[in-house]
Amino acid sequence: MTATNFDQSPIPDYSKQLRLDGRTLVVLGAGAGIGRQVSHALAQAGAKVACVDRDIELAKYVAEEVGGKPFAGDIIKRQDVERIFAEAHKAMGPITGLVDIVGMPVLGPLADLNDAKWASQFDLVLNHAFLAMQIGGRTIADCGGGSMVFVASMAGIVSLPGQGAYGAAKAALIHLVSNVGKELGPARVRVNAVAPGFARTPRLNTMLSEQQWSEIGKIIPLGAAAAPSEIAGPILFLSSDLASHVTGQTLLVDGGIAGAVQLPKLW
User: Fold this and answer.
1) How much helix, strand and coil, in percent to the nearest 5, is found in the chain?
2) Among 164, 161, 166, which residue's Cα sits nearest to residue 195?
3) pLDDT in tens, 81-109
4) Per-residue pLDDT tens for 170-182?
């Protein structure tokens, strides 16, 4: 074989493609759990992080940890989302990325949900994401392009008991991510999502006992629920240039549970 037959295409610096040096990313829901871990992951990769939370004290706490800046507001209100992006842009420079962590399930049979609880699922899970995509997407496009990553859920992909409303809202979010990823592609704005399974966030740790976590771990092929940091890692990937040709996608990060079928031993 002659030298001319060898692949001589250029080799990129893959480690450099993970870096976010000089970029400003907005994290919605940065105050705890996955949002706090994402803020650290982005900052360790070199990003300047705008830490947004409804509770300004939580936003300040994480911003101080990562050397970012805190912002507060109600992200289901258009005027607050517009203000947050405008303030972050003014204080931190061009916005090149967004990570949206916000969402909380109302658990229980659909028959027991009143109108207010049903509406709250779509406000908190879907309607705020529409605002973030529209306002954040426009801002990022105007700044030359970048990435948006939303936290969906396994509940939007498979049916989970007691999560009908939450799952319906997350399924709609997954569809919106797919659609808007195509819409914003020409503006060089990538739009993706991660869909966690069970993750040991501070909020869920207050709801579930160690015994319950142990039972959950037994049905997860990888043997345990995720740590919040294990969700932050894939978000960092999707936010970086390593995912420069990925848009409109939802990455399932569930330890394999969504594809697991519980059967009696057959051999």
Assistant:
1) 50, 15, 35
2) 166
3) 999 999 999 999 999 999 999 988 888 89
4) 999 999 999 999 9
Phi, psi angle pair for 53, to nearest 5°? -150, 155
CA angle 245, 31, 26 (to 5 degrees): 35
Beta bridge partners of 71: 52
The pTM of this model reads 0.94
Contact 31, 49 (CB under 8 A): no
- C-alpha span between 201 and 225 (Å, rounded): 10
Residue keyed to tokens 């800046």: 69
| Alpha carbons 206 and 134: distance in angstroms, whole number | 34
Q: Is 166 a catalytic residue?
A: yes
All structural domains of the chain: 21-256 (3.40.50.720)
The pLDDT tens digits for 194-250 are 999 999 999 889 988 999 999 999 999 999 999 999 999 999 999 999 999 999 999
Task: Say if CB 195 and CB 153 are below 8 A apart.
Answer: yes
Query: Where does the pLDDT of residue 5 fall: very low under 50, low under 70, confident under 90, or very high at 90 and above?
Result: confident
Percent of the chain past pLDDT 90, that is, above it, reads 88
CA distance 67 to 218: 39
Cα 162 to Cα 120, 165, 189: the distances in Å are 15, 8, 35
Residue 166 has pLDDT above 90, yes or no: yes
Burial of 112: CB neighbours in 10 Å, binned 0-12, 13-18, 19+:
exposed
Spot the catalytic one: 128, 166, 251, 257: 166
127: number of Cβ within 10 Å: 17
